[in-house]
Structure formats: C-alpha cells, structure tokens
TrEMBL record:
Gene3D superfamilies: Leucine-rich Repeat Variant. It comes from Gossypium raimondii (Peruvian cotton). This is 26S proteasome non-ATPase regulatory subunit 5. GO terms for biological process: proteasome assembly. One of its GO terms (cellular component) is cytosol.
C-alpha cells in the first residue's frame, strides 16, 4: 500500500475497528459506508500489512474486515482489492489467510454480473490455485473457509472447467492435488470432493465421470492408517445422505462395504462404520433403481454372517449391525429382502428385540423392528408383500414358541414392563 495510507499511530483505528467488529446485531450498508469514510480500506489494509506486531491489531482488523465484506456494499468493493486478497491467500498469518478465503466467498455470493466478470477475475488473479494451497496447507479454519469458497465458485457454470479440468495432467486436477498431499491433505481434498458432490446432480455426475470417487474408495481400502480410513468412511457416510447420491454410489460402493464388513482382521470401529453406511444407503427407496438385487442381497448376507459371528455379544459392532438392518428395513424393498432371504436376516432383529438380557442390542433391535413393520413408511407402504408378511409372522411366533411367554402378546407385555426407553421402542414397533 502507498505511504499516504500508512498510520504512525494505529490506536484510533484499533479502537474504532474493535467497536465496529463487536457491534451487536447485523450491520447495514450505511453503517459500513460510514465506517469506511472514516477509515478507507487502503488504510485498514496498510495497517494490517505493516502493523501486525501491534497487540490485538491483526485479529481486530480481520474481524472488522470480515463484517465489512459480508455486506452488499463491502462486497462490491472487493474487485478493486483483489490483489490484496491474492496476497492475503499467501500470507504467513493463518487469520489473514482465513479472512481472504472468506472474502472470496463474499465476493462470489454477492456478485453482480453487470459490474464485473467474476470468473475472469478469479482466473486472472490465480485465486483457485491459491485456495487449493489454503485447503492443503492452512490450519483447520483456513481449510474450512477454502472449501466454502470453492463451493461458492462451483455455483458458476463457467467455473466447472476450472475446478474439474478435462486434462488429467493439470496441476489443479484434484486427483493430482491429492497425490502430492500428506494423509491430512488427502482427507481435506476428499472432503472438498464430497462438499462439491452435494451441490447438484450435474456436479456429482462430473465428479463421478472424472473418477474422483475412486480416490475416496482407495483411501478406504488402504487400511495402513485406521484414523485416515475412518475419516474416509465418515465422508462416505456423508455422501450417502446426499439426495442424489444413491445413483452414483450404488454402482461401486456396495462391493467396497461388503469387503470391509467381511474382513475380520479390520478394526471393529471400521466395520461398524461400514455397517452404518450400508444401512443408510440401502434405506433409500430410489437406490434399488440403480443397484442390482444380487448385490444388495450379497451385502445383506455379509451383515447376516457378521451378526452370526458376533452371536450373543453385546458390542457396539453388534448394535451397529442391528441398526444397519433396521435402516435397510425402513424401505419397502429392503424390508422384503430382509424377510425373504434364506435364512431371513431379519431373524437377528426379532430374536434380539425380545431378549430381556439384551441391553443396548435389544433397544437397537426394537427400533429396527419398528422400521421393518413400517413405522417410518408412508401409509400406503406399510404392508409388505405376502411372503414378507408371512415371514415376519413366522419369526415372531418362532421366538414366542421358545419363550416362557408363549405368545407374541406375552412377549410384547414382557418388554413393556422394562425401562421407559424400551417401552417406547416396543410401542413403536408394535
């Protein structure tokens, strides 16, 4: 910044910026304009660049500028100071880098296509490359702000080619970025991919066709670092919650989940997460439009086998398996598969639901049973087909015949006499 904007004594600026940054409630454009009339942006930026050693000044000015740029008026000034943003994205200070990422977001959110061609400005200032560097090398807050900025950039159709270059050898291709990273950096790249995937079905399609989901699968298959694998599984779980995710995940993910659940040498916590993801994915009615029935049956069989190995153990993994079956059973097709497979995987749920010594697994099983009988399904989807309904009745009567309670109603009564959370669960499932 020019010397004319330099401050010998930043005390007045520090005091005013502190009041501005901590002003209660939202600030309108008039308040921002009034503040900037007294302390123009070049003065604030110059102080931020030259007086950072003044105690409290950097954090105060960063908080002040963040509030300025969140307003429509403040955001309209950003294009004039994009070189400052560019420098800020490369700063040693993490708080300045975080501010710069947030400033990019504010610019993109408030962009008026009549004032400037936003994407051209982003390209000319090499902003996307710098955001990627913030994602990989910044602290956690900087990385989060960088992801948010890239998500906002992805909202512009013209930016899709920047974020997903057709040339796989481009340095900014996310596959290449991940290959150069530490394990933490790779997880951050994967997190960015998941966040971008959630934006729209069209962007999800680009990600799928760019083979970027394979990065996530590769990280999950690499079991050398349990923490990294678990982080990747958490991201996969996040993907299954995306409305349009089933179409893309169903094509490859079921086999991956099957391999984890069937692998007795893997950490129990990893199998538990794979079980929960399986339940989440197969709970969606539309997933069966994209997955073939044998693949779904194979995954259910893997869960069934795992439950058989766990037998009567009251472990977190067993509860996860029961919850997974309950998730699958919440969809009509899933419930039918659970009840008509041979042997029916739903038998684990029914037996555990009426095991008075079951503790946590009994509660999980009761909720799962409620899903299978249609507690969460629409009224026109509660009743299953004849074979499934008959299988459900047979399983309940089978447990009753092995119990001193003798009848299903007696079994239900025995559970209703237990603690409140068990009574609530059984009232739902009945």
């Amino acid at each position: 910044m020019d010397e004319e904007f330099a401050l010998d004594d930043p005390t007045q600026l520090l005091d005013s910026a502190s009041d501005f940054a901590h002003h209660p409630g939202s600030l309108n454009d008039a308040a921002v304009k009034d503040f900037l009339d007294r302390f123009p942006l070049p003065v604030i930026i110059s102080a931020l660049q030259t007086k950072s050693d003044v105690p409290g000044l950097e954090n105060t000015l960063v908080a002040c500028l963040e509030r300025v740029f969140k307003t429509k008026y403040g955001a309209s000034l950003i294009p004039q100071y994009m070189t400052f943003v560019q420098v800020g994205l490369k700063a040693d200070s993490q708080v300045v880098r975080c501010l710069s990422c947030k400033t990019v977001s504010s610019f993109l959110k408030n962009f008026d296509d009549k004032s400037i061609y936003a994407i051209k400005l982003i390209i000319d200032c090499d902003i996307y490359q710098l955001l990627l560097d913030c994602l990989i090398n910044g602290d956690e807050q900087v990385a989060t702000a960088a992801i948010d900025a890239i998500k906002n950039l992805a909202q512009f159709p013209e930016a899709v080619g920047i974020i997903f270059p057709s040339n796989i050898n481009e340095a900014t291709h996310l596959g290449n970025v991940a290959s150069r990273c530490s394990s933490l950096g790779r997880v951050r790249v994967l997190s960015l991919i998941v966040k971008l995937f959630s934006i729209s079905s069209s962007i999800a399609s680009v990600i799928y066709n760019s083979n970027l989901l394979s990065l996530l699968e590769a990280e999950i298959r690499n079991s050398n670092d349990t923490l990294v694998t678990l982080s990747a599984l958490e991201l996969l779980y996040e993907l299954t919650e995306v409305q349009h995710g089933a179409e893309f995940l169903a094509r490859t993910t079921l086999q991956l989940l099957h391999s984890i659940i069937s692998n007795s040498s893997m950490e129990s916590i990893l199998r538990s997460r794979a079980l929960m993801i399986s339940g989440r994915l197969l709970s969606k009615e539309n997933v069966y439009m994209f997955v073939d029935e044998p693949s779904a049956k194979s995954l259910i069989s893997a869960i069934d086998v795992r439950l058989g190995l766990l037998d009567s153990q009251d472990t977190d993994e067993r509860e996860s398996a029961l919850e997974a079956l309950g998730g699958i059973g919440s969809s009509i097709q899933g419930a039918v598969l659970l009840l008509t497979s041979f042997p029916p995987a739903a038998r684990h749920i029914v037996h555990a639901a009426f095991d008075r010594q079951g503790g946590g697994k009994q509660l999980a099983a009761l909720h799962a049973l409620g899903n299978i009988v249609g507690e969460n399904r629409p009224e026109d989807g509660v009743i299953l087909n004849g074979d499934a309904e008959e299988s459900l009745r047979r399983l309940v009567y089978e447990v009753a015949s092995e119990s001193s309670k003798l009848t299903p109603s007696g079994l239900l009564l025995s559970v209703l006499q237990q603690a409140a959370e068990f009574r609530l669960a059984v009232s739902v499932s009945s």
